[in-house]
Write a structure and sequence with these properties.
The protein has 285 residues and is an alpha/beta fold. The protein is built from 7 helices and 17 strands. A hairpin with a 2-residue loop joins strand 12 and strand 13. Helix 1 crosses helix 7.
Length: 285
Amino acid sequence: MDKIYDVMVVGGGIAGYSAALTLKSLKRDTLWLGAELFGEKLRAAEYVRNYPSVHGSGALFASRLEEQMQQEGIVFTRGRADGIYAGDVFTVTAADQVYTARSVILATGVSQTGAVQGETDFLGRGVSYCAVCDGALYRGKTIAAVVASEKFAEEVEYLAGFAATVHAFCLYQHASFSAKNVIVHTEKPLRVEGTLRVERLIRKEGVLDVDAVFFLRDAAPPAALVGGLEVEGSQVKTARDGSTNLPGLFAAGDVTGRPYQYAKAAGEGLVAAYSAHAYLAEKKA
């Protein structure tokens, strides 16, 4: 909390990297934060054919990006942002870490893995995207967790330390947990329901009564991540300069909508970086 960055770039993909690289050339004090550097989707791509000068696998593309990072002195900080709070100075939380910046570029991409009907309707009323933030609220309760990949298994174990029972809907194979109060399900639930708060999870096999549902995946919906952010469906509404309805907050890449292409992400990351630079200069004037 002692340090206030000029710009904080949130998202470890191409858009985030492009923004961080541009801000470095603009001599802005920047923190680049993301859950994972360049992501599994890029690294697993069999062939990249839509990015100028690149021909080869996603793994090769990622290795070249990492080589450039080292040459340019770009530092990546690993962490999954779970809250961005707008103000004269932005506050970004990532589990037990808190960062502050005068401007933020949102480049978290999109993640529909495990998306369930009704989840956004109960945000803050039993639906959460952060085990560390909200797990303790459900001490002794029955909760569910929709788990996108094995890398979130530790968060399920964390939730099990508070809840009486955790129903883990694992969207990957061979899931197992050491906590005895975790019940593993191999299906994807259909719908979250309730009145004022979450009360049940609807699945093919019937109704499961729960007090909360945690969605554990790489990126939370933008509206859940940033209070007051204007969205259109699942994408952030932006102007051509990447600005959003919140002064000082810019967005780039897949989070702004289709096409989901690396070239678009890189271009928008650059535009957002220049826009954040101009915003800070005007604010200082």
